[in-house]
Design goal:
By secondary structure, the protein is an alpha+beta fold. The chain has one domain (3-137): Nucleoside diphosphate kinase-like domain (Alpha-Beta Plaits, 2-Layer Sandwich). The protein contains eight helices and four strands. The chain has helices spanning 10-14, 18-28, 42-48, 58-65, 80-88, 101-105, 120-130, 144-147; strands at 3-8, 31-38, 70-76, 114-116. The relative contact order is 0.24. The protein binds ribavirin triphosphate (RTP) and magnesium ion. Residues 52, 57, 61, 91, 109-110, 112, 115-116, 118 line the site of ribavirin triphosphate. The site of ribavirin triphosphate (RTP) has 10 residues, from strand 4. InterPro entries: NDK-like_dom, NDK-like_dom_sf, Nucleoside_diP_kinase, Nucleoside_diP_kinase_AS. Its cofactor is Mg(2+).
């Protein structure tokens, strides 16, 4: 089954939106298989955003992600990588559709509340970067036979 890496960024945690975000993923029907509340070491933030290392906003992005705790999660389900990006909405919260997490709760591109892997291959890399195998739980929720 497909998995994706989701992180509630420091602004999402500070604004008490962690429960709201988790609720949206749960009620959609995706399955939580890993979660941890953590301070992000700078080296991990730099690796996570390595693809953006030449961009002008890279160091401020790493400063932001390491500034306050995050909730790191792995969610599972059919089409969860693109499905999660749909729940999250466009990168700029001002243009993200209402009904999406960024569209409902954000204003600024540098404070867009949540990260979601952008492709299946990226998700595999990010999950391996953030979680050990022993931190992920494979399980079958009773509701899945009513979802699929
Ligand atoms: P994310 O990786 O955080 O899920 O966001 P994303 O795919 O929607 O956007 P991406 O292009 O990967 O950019 C990563 C994060 O960098 C910040 N950003 N700032 N100031 C800027 O122009 C700018 N552009 C991007 C955003 O916080 C974005 O989430
Ligand atoms: Mg991205």
């Amino acid at each position: 089954m497909e998995r994706t890496f989701i992180m509630i960024k420091p602004d999402g945690v500070q604004r008490n939106l962690a429960g709201e975000v988790i609720k949206r993923f749960e009620t959609k029907g995706f399955t939580l298989v890993g979660m941890k509340f953590m301070a992000v070491p700078r080296e991990l933030a730099e690796k996570h955003y390595d693809v953006h290392k030449e961009r002008p906003f890279f160091s401020s992005l790493v400063d932001f992600i390491t500034s306050s705790p995050v909730v790191a999660m792995v969610w599972e389900g059919e089409g969860v990588v693109s499905g999660a990006r749909t729940l999250i909405g466009a990168t700029n919260p001002l243009t993200a559709a209402p009904g999406t997490i960024r569209g409902d709760f954000g204003i600024s591109i540098g404070r867009n509340l949540i990260h979601g892997s952008d492709a299946i291959e990226t998700a595999k890399t990010e999950i391996a970067l953030w979680f050990g195998e022993d931190e992920l739980v494979s399980w079958q929720p009773a509701a899945s036979s009513w979802l699929y």
